[in-house]
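Quick check before the chapter quiz. The format below is the same one you will see on the exam, so make sure you can read both the input and the output lines.
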Amino acid sequence: MPVTSRRGGKLAYKILFWFLLISLAPMGLVGYHLINISQASLRKETLAMQESLAVGFADTVYKYVTTFKNVLTETSGLEDFAGMNPIKQQQYLNRIMQVHLAVLELSVVNAQGVEVLRTGRFLSASPEMRKFTTDEFFNETMTRGQYVGKLERFQGLYPALTIAVGIMDPKAASPKPVGVLEGKISLNGLSSMLSMEFPPAGKSAAAVVAPDGFLIAHSNPKEVYKPDARLSDDVLKIITTQMNDKGGGEIQLPDGSKLLGAYSDVKDLGWVVYVQQPLETAYQTAAEMRTQILRVLVWVVIFVFLLSWAVAGFISQPIRVLREAADRLGKGQFEDLPEIMMTNDEIGELAQTFLTMSDSLREKTGELIHAKGELEKYGKDLQRRVEARTRELKAAQDELIKKERLAAMGQMASVVGHEIRNPLAVINNSIYFIKTKLGPVLEGEQKIAKHIKIIESEIQGANDIINQILDYARDRQLKLERVSLNAWVDDLLGAYPFPAHIRVEKSLTPVNPTVEIDVAEMKQAVRNLIGNGIEVMPPPQGGAVRIRTGIADDGSAVIEVGDTGPGIPADVREKLFTAFFTTKARGTGLGLAVVRKVMDRHRGRVELDSAVGKGTIFRLFLPQAAAPK
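Here is the expected output.
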């Protein structure tokens, strides 16, 4: 009997359904878990970073206050000062006011609580003396030897702290105070440090607050200068009721908004350092990652759907052709056809028509082999495409990891810079105090003077290392200026302190190209190269530093910095521009890494030409500035 042809086959839809199910279900589950894991990890890392910043600045606040307490303690313990000689005391108080700009007012109070000497930045020539017999700072200092407290708004605006120490007579048999040295210290410096770490233009904020809500410092100094400046009662209640010295988490405000906050107690002062940022800002990276993953999943769904549709159509098409051919054969080309039972899909129809096509199976086998070859070809092509997309994804992932590490390094460098510069500042102040105390004695004690100079030199060297790390880690926006290359090089060489054993050889191209550069960054890069050249040519032999400008074959402007030093071995050259790699006994290994970074930011390049025993040449290639319209 003739077989009826059905064009609405269901096999293609079945293949398409199973392809999508097998391909997308595991990918959807993996993407869902990846998003959740990423959000949890980023939240934990962000909160840990905020806690670290709060702990670090709490230590900075403690050291800030301790520095001024130590200054007053050292001054009050001097024999001339303890003698309660007003002239000597006035000299010492004037010296403190000159050295420490944060000191607003100093007073000397005798053992009876009567003020005998008073000086300040905003006082009249002859201020009225006061009596402090019943004041807390006087009684506590006479009893315990020191006092730190009494926060107030100096002149109704600026936060100030009262610090008092006992004046001890070193000749007395018992260590009993003979008076009190009291000072009012401006806390504006804490707000300045916070504003550098948390710029007011940003979304993050930080504050230092007393338990009663008195706002001591804020990353936005305008908040501190308000007469009734206080931290929000909602936030204050949360951070002052915590049992731990430090911590953090999400904070729900009454208006429904959420913050990610962290706090840390300031040692011995009872103050709290509080760091906050909006929850949407803290989780911005996680949201961006979720968006990117969802975008990738959408494209994968589209790609898999189209691919599945093509494969399903390709597989079912030959079957439909065979079914239609069998139908035509069954309509009159063969006799005595068996009765065929129809099913509701293409495979059932193929099985039924196969009985009528047995004689033509050999002829159709070639067609099936051809179809299989085509399928394998498409499978290999698909595999090549998947491999290419995998390589592209891995490259993008590596670039993302590199940027995240550099950002983390910048944050770490900023924190480390604060933590190291504070003790360096204290050491520098102490050296200044020692030099002030020794005075003329240093002229006769050359060995002491030499060691003091060594300490000052090492402090400067430590600051230079911190600056190098910060310069490499920070990624600020370029401030391009249009300059004449020869004139700029002349200015740079004129200001560079070349030592006496170095000879400078300069050769500037008459073409004098014009370039657009960030003057500060490019100056740092060229100075790094000159400094490296000078270091490899020590006295007494010395050598020559050769500076040349020119035009490269590709039209780029060129700055050459060469030296006549020992040259660089071939096995070292590949690592020279790697951050923290150095062959020196001392150094950060960031000099040439900074050079490479500066050139990359200027869309230029740096090349190295060195011969062992003959010297080294660094070439900086910069695009010339376009002619003004």
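If your answer matched, good. Confidence is low (pLDDT under 50) at residues 1-8.
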